[in-house]
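COMPLEX REQUEST
Ligand: adenosine-5'-diphosphate
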Amino acid sequence: ATTPETPKPSKVIAVVNQKGGVGKTTTAINLAASLALEGLPTLLIDCDPQANTTGGLGFGRDDARPSIYDLLMDHHAADKVIVPTDVDNLSLIPGSKNLIGANIELVAQDRREYRLRDALAPVRANYPFILLDCPPALDLLTLNALVAADGLLVPMQAEYFALEGISELMSTLDRVTQSFNSSLALEGVLLTMYDDRTNLSQQVTENLTSFFTDKLLKTSIPRNVRLAEAPSHGKPVALYDSKSRGAEAYRELALELLARNNMESPEVARRRAAA
Ligand code: ADP
Ligand code: MG
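STATUS: Structure written out below.
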């Protein structure tokens, strides 16, 4: 039996695509939950004023509860806004409707692009993975996420216009790398709501493979109704229907991400040691 490898210090991953409805929130919730269920303490941060990640984990959206807004505005330190969730090892910094105004309020603040990065510094080391769910815009909130992040995870639908907007996203990545955060890199591109039976999906996948090469993740997420239903039950799909194709796919994604970062799942290691 081998002992599990100690998780490496934290990796912050921003789930970004300025298009709405491509599966960012679904990916943020279910990838974070899958990493947590593999035994890795994970922090999920809801950076979108729509607060769908917060709602999808069963939390109310316009509570007076401290949120990411208070963190960005320096009203509270990170440890005061982090809440535990029903998923073992998964913590959340909730979003809130206040964030709608944050884009404007942040403009007048010192180090406006670094607010999230600065605020997370004291808690980063507590989590092997921190995931940021971003709004469908390349605004100051998303910029804060990109400046705080090490990696960019881009969910995309395999549709004819999939690459539309991607050049804008890639030039934003370049700009952030040059001006604010030289350690930011593309972690991977993830196909979501995938249906491999259609010719179009296969054709788009070929195009994306030649465009992104090894950055196109091997795991793709199938269209699965359980993924769409789970948020209304306030649960990630792994707790709502752990045997569903959606749950299997996000677990596979978590394992691929770990492998790409030379990390082992503590849960896999534990099972192997017990066998
Ligand atoms: P975004 O955060 O990019 O706007 P969402 O994750 O909210 O996108 O997804 C948009 C909609 O599509 C939601 O209703 C969600 O439940 C649904 N959805 C996302 N991924 C899948 C999937 N793989 N299968 C079925 N429905 C999905
Ligand atoms: Mg979303």
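REMARKS: The longest helix spans residues 245-260. The radius of gyration is 18 Å.
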